[in-house]
Amino acid sequence: MLRSVCLGPSILKAYNSRVAVDYLATAVGNIDISSGAKEYALDRNVPGAVMSYHGSETLSLQGRLHTLERANPIPFAKIDSQLCAGTDQLRKVHIFHRHLKGGQHVAFLMEIIRGNSLKEEHVGELLKNGEVTKSEFATFVNKILLEKDLKAQLSNDIPDAVHTEILMTLFQVYCKTIVGDTQERLTSLQTHDINLFVKRFIDEGQLGKAQICLQYIMDKQGLEFVLEKRDVGTIRHFLQLRCGALPKYWKRRLKASNTRISKRKRLGDNSVSCNLSNSYKPLDEKSLLKIMEFLLGETSSQGKYSSSLDATIVYSLGYLGQMQLIDKFLKKKWLVPTSEAVSDETAKPELLIAALSAYCIQNGNMAKGLEILDQFVNKFPNTHLDNVFWRRLIQLSICIGDPNENKKGEISYACWNIMKQWHQGRNISIPYDQGILLQMYDLFKSTKNGKTALDVISTCFQSFYLSPEHLLVPNEVGLLNKYQKLCIRTMALKGNYHKPLKFIKEWSINEGNRKELYDYFITHRKKYDLRQDRIRLHKKLLQKRYDDMEEEDMLLGGLW
């Protein structure tokens, strides 16, 4: 029975390695075997099962087991269970080496989930036996947390799996096995790994789980130690979860254009790429002031300019409505009055976005935000404002203010002109960015501004007319087509005839596009003609009515 269950040829063939054989040999090596039994085993010749055992002594493993089966049948069931367990352990080790060593971290995670092995005792046993090192397990955790489509991969293979619950279980296993029950502080690598859990849960909209992970760090480290070591990752997560530095949860007041009723809506509610928690109530103002004072008191060059951390401070102050503290913080940390610009330093766009968001969303003061932007650009001329910055600027210009007072989009057009001037001043072209162009299209459509839409085509879509047709992306061509039709529609409905035809000739990308635009122009030209006919008919009827009244008045006057 033992040979058929645990030592069949298929098992030894599947694990045709010294590891499997040595393990099975060790499993029965602790049982005392008489010299007669050893001789019996040496005399047997079983192909495929001969190995080195205890130095130079060679014997057949199957022969030894057969001897044990005849000479000592009582403990055989115990041996059988031990060997079967050993074979199962070998299978897990083989899976580990096949998936984890091969970089297939999600496959390894699914394997241990199926085997119900994502537990402290199982992982601890792997670490204790040396089959997995702490470094390898930490690397596995890092790779899983950085996997963008983890939810899709797990749901395809394990339909009932909730990936955030699996990650929470993984966090608990990590704390028990890698960190342990020690009272010592976390190492830098352990802090980094747990901050990855915090970031992942924030991105997933699981703020409760993120708070648990953050609290674990704070219990081990303490805020004073975190500040002393300048642990930027932990400080940022502390500010985000407990001091309001998550702008996607900020609420802005919306007012319908035709009613006096207003409501508050979160900034991230309409974003398809943003997962939001149902509640967000950060209340820790004292810690925020303590962190800000510590950063303002730093004198080292490392803490002089830190855009990411300072941006988080500005978000927190903006959430609390502390605009005067934002001014104080930025002026003391970044905008110290000097006679010369700081040419060797740059302010990253994320800091400028934070300042603009605080003034626009929380204070409703776009002018103050743009004033801060001018000061930064003058002080740090090498600062590069990327597409994300301009996208946020346009978004802020659209969402700020009362729609009744900003029907013509003056603020958004001003931001568009700032964007153009910034690029022209540095002699660089405005790059294509679908997020910016989609927002501007909605603005141009609502204000019926075909002239500026043509300006966008000539500045942002130039690469489309220089690239081969087969390299054009369909959705990008679709956006260009929207702009083309907007220009044609506005020109046609104004009664222009030659301008639309000239536009079609100059700005169509191929023959098919040219025919489509021409048909579109004819359709709207007919609409214009019909509207003019109705207007002429209406004027004619009014004139006839007026003439009839005049004739009637003349008749009545003659009778008098």
UniProtKB/TrEMBL annotation:
Tell me which InterPro entries the record gives: ATPase_expression_mit
Q: Name one GO biological process term.
A: regulation of translation
User: Where does this polypeptide localize?
Assistant: Mitochondrion
A cellular component annotation (GO) from this entry: mitochondrion
Could you tell me the superkingdom of the organism this chain comes from?
Eukaryota
Keywords of the record: Mitochondrion, Transit peptide, Translation regulation
Subunit record text = Binds to the 5'UTR of the OLI1 mRNA.
Protein function? Required for translation of the mitochondrial OLI1 transcript coding for the mitochondrial ATP synthase subunit 9.
Please state which protein family the record places this protein in. Answer: Belongs to the AEP2 family.
Specify the protein name. Answer: ATPase expression protein 2, mitochondrial
